[in-house]
């Protein structure tokens, strides 16, 4: 059994109150490893909140002894289950920290993750949140040879990400993110959309503040058959499969609802309205080629394919990946 010490290598002028919120569901296979990696941080959080949606008690039993030994870990069992979005919302509302980290049950944190991300927020008061890269690993913790940012095709030039980049794509995932409490208060509650927490945190916070990014793999992101989202290696085949899947599911309808919710919550701005036009146009392209061609040309000549999409890749997707007749 590991003997965790409460490391406090915090050299900042003022002590930082740090919370971690961890959403769990049937996580008995991985959650102990994740919780141990959080307890083994150079700077141990002041509180860890676990929300458990499991029907059985397997997740609780996997960490029961750690809960008994570390009273700053708070465990909540939800019956009935809340779902991942409402689970995170519940935990975030209860978190008392100045800086709040979000965690998935099946990852593992690099020992200096809290230290580096908290220091960034402390030294960059203009940033309401910060996110890092993560390394994809398998169930045995072996590297799969690619990172989360490679999957998102996100290659930042510096340590800031402006709202224009978030309007193009939400590069962060919640499991890589830390956010200030005062910013978080402004963006809760989450809208009633499926799996919205990643995108909502990224976009809503970008409307209120700046985002910082750390180009280091501070999380080991476990890919396995039970993942809520199960990405594959970002090969050309995988990218083509993802492009076809977004057309099949018409993911633009979900994105339209997301931007409508942002406008309703924070008010209309020119760039929000322009982004909504782009998303609505692509949602309405589920028609034959000759009916959608005017929409494609309008978005192309307006520049919105390049401002909000992947440029010519998105044009090709709309021309060739949708039904011709």
List the helices and strands and how they pair.
Layout: E1 18-24, H1 31-39, E2 47-52, H2 58-69, E3 73-77, H3 84-94, E4 99-104, E5 108-109, H4 113-123, E6 127-137, E7 143-147, H5 148-152, E8 160-161, H6 163-168, E9 177-180, H7 181-187, H8 197-208, E10 210-222, H9 236-248, H10 251-266, H11 270-283, H12 289-302, H13 304-308, H14 312-320
Parallel strand pairs: 1-2, 1-4, 2-3, 6-10
Antiparallel strand pairs: 4-9, 5-10, 6-7, 6-9, 8-10
Helix pairs in contact: 7-8, 10-11
Do you know the CATH topology of the largest domain? Spore Coat Polysaccharide Biosynthesis Protein SpsA, Chain A
In percent, how much strand structure appears in the residues? 15-25%
The total domain count is 2
Task: Report the major sheet.
Answer: 10 strands, mixed
In short:
With 325 residues, the protein is α/β, with parallel strands linked by helices. The protein has helices spanning 31-39, 58-69, 84-94, 113-123, 148-152, 163-168, 181-187, 197-208, 236-248, 251-266, 270-283, 289-302, 304-308, 312-320; strands at 18-24, 47-52, 73-77, 99-104, 108-109, 127-137, 143-147, 160-161, 177-180, 210-222.
């Amino acid at each position: 059994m590991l003997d965790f010490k409460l490391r406090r290598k915090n050299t900042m002028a003022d002590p930082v109150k740090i919370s971690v919120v961890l959403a769990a569901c049937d996580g008995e296979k991985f959650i102990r490893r994740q919780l141990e990696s959080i307890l083994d941080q150079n700077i141990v959080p002041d509180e860890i909140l676990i929300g458990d949606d499991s029907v059985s008690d397997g997740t609780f039993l996997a960490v029961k002894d750690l809960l008994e030994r570390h009273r700053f870990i708070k465990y909540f069992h939800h019956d009935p289950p809340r779902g991942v979005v409402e689970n995170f919302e519940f935990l975030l509302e209860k978190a008392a920290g100045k800086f709040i980290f979000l965690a998935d049950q099946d990852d593992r944190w690099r020992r200096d993750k809290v230290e580096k991300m908290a220091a960034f927020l402390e030294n960059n008061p203009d940033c309401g949140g910060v996110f890092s890269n993560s390394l994809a690993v398998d169930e045995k913790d072996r590297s799969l040879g690619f990172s989360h940012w490679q999957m998102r095709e996100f290659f930042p030039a510096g340590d800031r990400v402006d709202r224009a980049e978030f309007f193009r794509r939400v590069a962060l995932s919640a499991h890589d993110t830390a956010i200030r409490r005062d910013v978080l208060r402004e963006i809760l509650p989450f809208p009633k959309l499926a799996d919205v927490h990643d995108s909502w945190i990224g976009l809503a916070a970008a409307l209120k503040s700046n985002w910082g990014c750390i180009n280091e793999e501070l999380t080991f992101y476990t890919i396995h058959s039970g993942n809520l989202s199960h990405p594959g290696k970002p090969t050309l085949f995988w990218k083509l499969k993802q492009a076809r899947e977004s057309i099949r599911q018409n993911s633009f309808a979900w994105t339209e609802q997301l931007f409508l919710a942002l406008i309703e919550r924070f008010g209309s701005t020119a760039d929000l309205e322009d982004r909504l036009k782009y998303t609505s146009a692509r949602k309405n392209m589920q028609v034959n080629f000759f009916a959608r061609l005017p929409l494609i040309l309008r978005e192309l000549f307006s520049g919105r394919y390049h401002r909000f999409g992947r440029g010519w890749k998105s044009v090709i997707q709309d021309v060739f990946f949708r039904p011709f007749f």
